[in-house]
């Protein structure tokens, strides 16, 4: 019988792979808490409308990549392809749009997109993200970016990434920019890809995101939004960058970073790296002032980012070490009970401790070495009678006698 394998585009997280991913998520959880973010967990699947509204029906994710299906009750549901839309839906569904704003939310978990698997990209992948819901001030834009930078510093990967930033302006700025893009791309319509010809009618800003090589040539000479900003939008952009400088976050301007949906405005940014082969994005976000409204709530200015845990974990200089256990080794049947008591005393003291389920002293010591134990505690009849254990340092090869009552304190 053929052994079953993971579905294409998915993988098991075991050993070093899991430790890398867990370290990224736990570091982000810890640093975001320092900034006042509270963790939320939303369902892994939602009504398909949550993501169709949140991502736009002309986006590649909605058109080509979502795992959508009709459940047995006839409802159209989708495995979440990203986290922001669900967080905004939760704000509305739980009646939180009018109280204690702004809400600062952290999330982490699996996402799903049907795309071509490649290095660092899977059909089930994992993201961390933060959102500030209900703040229109440029300081909140700068703070979410600073938090993302702080997380990368804590992971030891900040020197390998670069923050690129752009402004999308306000509604008036975007209208003027959209008109300029339509005029430019219409003059070159015969050179556009099929998908971008559709985007020209529906949402011309999407063309700037095109991966088609022919489109990229045209995009290189396309108008930039900086030439179409209102004074208010230009001032907002200046303030965000001044705050970033105050926070000590280095950045460079990239006028080609865009977000295609109408509710995106002002700040758009990406942390990019060239340490994963071709330059790639590891963290991206921006301001969205209409997404909560798309979910049926009131207009709620918001800003946030999301980051791929797989990609961040690949940038780690080394995998976090697994916790090394202390092996408790009873010698003789009479020692098993006291050994189990000592085992639990160590665990209550916060010490990782293991006991082999069977075997003589030699075999139990062999297992202690196989699992990389840092020490072994040996208990025989003589030790039990004297109320002590033999503590063997498996790295140094030394051994000493320690009173049982002092063992947890010595090893914690």
From TrEMBL:
Domain (Aminoacyl-transfer RNA synthetases class-II family profile): residue spans on this chain: 1-330
HAMAP family according to UniProt: His_tRNA_synth (MF_00127)
Assembly behavior: Homodimer.
Gene3D superfamilies on file: Anticodon-binding domain, Bira Bifunctional Protein, Domain 2
Source organism of the structure: Roseomonas alba
Gene: hisS
Substrates-to-products reaction catalysed: tRNA(His) + L-histidine + ATP = L-histidyl-tRNA(His) + AMP + diphosphate + H(+)
InterPro entries in UniProt: aa-tRNA-synth_II, aa-tRNA-synth_II/BPL/LPL, Anticodon-bd, Anticodon-bd_dom_sf, His-tRNA-ligase, HisRS-like_core, HisRS/HisZ, HisRS_anticodon
GO molecular function: histidine-tRNA ligase activity
Pfam families, per the entry: HGTP_anticodon, tRNA-synt_His
Name of the protein in its database record: Histidine--tRNA ligase
CDD domains with a match to the protein in the record: HisRS-like_core, HisRS_anticodon
Similarity comment: Belongs to the class-II aminoacyl-tRNA synthetase family.
EC number: 6.1.1.21
Group of enzyme by EC: ligase
Origin superkingdom: Bacteria
PROSITE patterns noted in UniProt: AA_TRNA_LIGASE_II (PS50862)
Lineage: Bacteria, Pseudomonadati, Pseudomonadota, Alphaproteobacteria, Acetobacterales
């Amino acid at each position: 019988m053929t052994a079953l394998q993971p579905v294409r585009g998915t993988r098991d997280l075991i050993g070093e792979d899991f430790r890398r991913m867990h370290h990224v998520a736990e570091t982000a959880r810890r640093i975001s808490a320092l900034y006042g973010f509270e963790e939320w967990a939303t369902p892994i699947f939602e009504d398909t409308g949550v993501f169709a509204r949140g991502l736009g029906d002309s986006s590649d994710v909605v058109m080509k990549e979502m795992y959508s299906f009709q459940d047995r009750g006839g409802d159209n549901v989708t495995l979440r392809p990203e986290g922001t839309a669900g967080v905004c839906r939760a704000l509305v569904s739980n009646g939180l749009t009018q109280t204690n704003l702004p809400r600062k939310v952290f999330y982490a978990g699996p996402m799903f997109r049907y795309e071509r698997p490649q290095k660092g990209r899977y059909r089930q992948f994992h993201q961390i993200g933060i959102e500030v819901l209900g703040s229109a001030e440029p300081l909140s834009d700068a703070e979410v970016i600073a938090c993302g930078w702080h997380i990368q510093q804590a992971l030891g990967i900040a020197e390998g990434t670069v923050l690129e930033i752009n402004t999308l302006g306000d509604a008036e700025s975007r209208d003027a920019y959209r008109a300029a893009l339509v005029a430019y791309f219409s003059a070159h319509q015969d050179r556009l890809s099929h998908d971008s010809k559709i985007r020209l009618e529906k949402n011309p800003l999407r063309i700037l995101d095109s991966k088609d090589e022919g489109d990229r040539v045209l995009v290189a000479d396309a108008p930039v939004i900086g030439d179409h900003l209102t004074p208010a939008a230009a001032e907002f952009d200046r303030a965000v960058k001044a705050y970033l400088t105050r926070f000590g976050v280095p950045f460079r301007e990239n006028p080609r970073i865009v977000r295609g949906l109408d509710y995106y405005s002002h700040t758009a940014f990406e942390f990019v790296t060239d340490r994963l082969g071709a330059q790639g994005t590891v963290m991206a976000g921006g301001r969205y002032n209409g997404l909560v409204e798309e979910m049926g709530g009131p207009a709620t200015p918001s800003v946030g980012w999301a980051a791929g845990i797989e990609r961040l974990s690949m940038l780690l200089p080394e995998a976090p070490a697994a916790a090394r256990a202390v092996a408790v080794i009873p010698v003789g049947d009479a020692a098993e009970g006291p050994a189990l008591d000592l085992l639990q005393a160590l665990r209550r003291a916060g010490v990782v401790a293991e006991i082999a389920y069977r075997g003589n002293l030699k075999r139990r010591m062999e297992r202690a070495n196989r699992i990389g134990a840092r020490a072994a505690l040996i208990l025989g009849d003589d030790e039990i009678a004297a109320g002590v254990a033999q503590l063997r340092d498996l790295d140094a090869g030394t051994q000493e006698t320690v009173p049982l009552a002092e063992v947890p304190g010595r090893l914690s």
